[in-house]
Amino acid sequence: MAIQVLAGIPWLAGVLGAAFTSILTFVLQFFTKKLAVITAVVLSLVGITVTFFAAITALFAGIQYVMPVAITQGMALIVPGNTTACLTAVVTGHTVRYVYAWQFRIIQYKLF
Fold first, then answer.
1. In total, how many domains does the chain have?
2. Taking the chain (112 residues) in consecutive chunks of 10 residues, what is each chunk's mean pLDDT?
3. What angle (nearest 5°) sits at the alpha carbon of residue 27, between those of residues 23 and 29?
4. 112: which DSSP letter?
């Protein structure tokens, strides 16, 4: 009787191993796809922020180049030196809020 039970153990181990392997493969594929999407979104946001910062800096540099010196000195009294960084922070904040609201809506649609 004990020999019959011991003879079935390799079969049971094979079945359980195959089931575990297929479940693990499915879970890893699911999370890999999600990770790829999240990485793409984060990289897109970083790219948009860097591009916006470069555009604002280039616009200010172009305006400063064609302005007379007296106006540039007068603007330096009103506009701080970190204006581009401040504008970038404001736009980035709005972008992050929009992405958060968008993700929240997506999650709500999937749950309800």
1. 1
2. 58 75 80 79 76 77 82 83 81 80 73 59
3. 115
4. -
